[in-house]
């Protein structure tokens, strides 16, 4: 399992997953996303976005639209997506990364702390209000200092061993009955060896 930058050709896949999960697609740009990929099957397991707000006063870094496909959950995939995004924030010169989310408990394990909405930079105060009105009524603001972010060891271990969860029963192979043919009475154009 590894996390890499999203590719332009993955836009439709990302938009479909964002819609399915009810996540925020405001100002969508695929180049802002990272995608977690299984090394063996090459399946996409999760994704997330770093959004940089460039206001008149200051630039602000926000994590948003973080999602893990159901069959990949509880295996450290989200943790590593978030880690990559926080690293990008640091690489872009940010000391603090924000998130406006309804998953505060989940993010707390990495060092994210609640912040009073009044302490948010202006661009994020407006975004929080919009997000609460339109997407996540219970969204709260969080922040983490880039140098204090940490992935717990048990999530690192799970990520190394991650695999897709049990899939549904495979569909049975189609037989003649599925096409309205009685196999005992049918004649075949070619010899089937029966």
The strand count comes to: 7
Order of helices and strands: EHEEEHEHEHEH
> Helix/strand/pairing class, anyone?
alpha+beta
Helix content: 25-40%
**Mind describing the biggest β-sheet?**
7 strands, mixed
In what range is the share of β-strand residues? 15-25%
Low-confidence stretches: 166-172
Radius of gyration: 22 Å
What distance separates the N and C termini?
47 Å
The general outline is globular
Mean pLDDT over the residues: 82
Total helices: the number is 5
Walk across the major sheet and give the strand order. 1-2-3-4-5-7-6
Give an overview in words:
By secondary structure, the chain is of the alpha+beta class. Helix content is 27%, strand content 23%. It contains 5 helices and 7 strands; from the N terminus they run βαβββαβαβαβα. The chain has a 7-stranded mixed β-sheet with strand order 1-2-3-4-5-7-6, sandwiched between helices. The longest helix has 15 residues, at 77-91. It is globular, with a radius of gyration of 22 Å.
Quick tags:
acyltransferase, globular, EC 2.3.1.-, Acyl_CoA_acyltransferase, 7-stranded mixed beta sheet, 23% strand, 7 strands, 194 residues, alpha+beta, single chain, transferase, 5 helices, GNAT_dom, 27% helix
């Amino acid at each position: 399992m590894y996390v890499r930058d999203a590719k332009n050709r993955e836009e439709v896949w990302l938009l479909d997953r964002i819609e399915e999960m009810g996540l925020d697609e405001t100002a969508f740009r695929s180049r802002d996303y990272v995608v977690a990929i299984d090394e063996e099957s090459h399946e996409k397991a999760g994704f997330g976005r770093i959004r940089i707000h460039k206001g008149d006063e200051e630039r602000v870094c926000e994590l948003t639209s973080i999602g893990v496909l159901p069959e990949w959950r509880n295996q450290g995939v989200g943790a590593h997506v978030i880690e990559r995004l926080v690293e990008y924030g640091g690489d872009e010169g940010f000391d603090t990364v924000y998130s406006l989310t309804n998953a505060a408990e989940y993010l707390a394990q990495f060092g994210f702390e609640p912040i009073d909405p009044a302490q948010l930079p202006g661009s994020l105060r407006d975004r929080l209000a919009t997000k609460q009105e339109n997407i996540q009524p219970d969204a709260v603001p969080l922040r983490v200092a880039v140098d204090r972010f940490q992935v717990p060891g048990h999530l690192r271990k799970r990520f190394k061993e991650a695999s897709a969860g049990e899939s549904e029963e495979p569909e049975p192979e189609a037989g003649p009955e599925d096409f309205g043919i009685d196999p005992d009475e049918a004649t075949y154009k070619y010899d089937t060896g029966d």
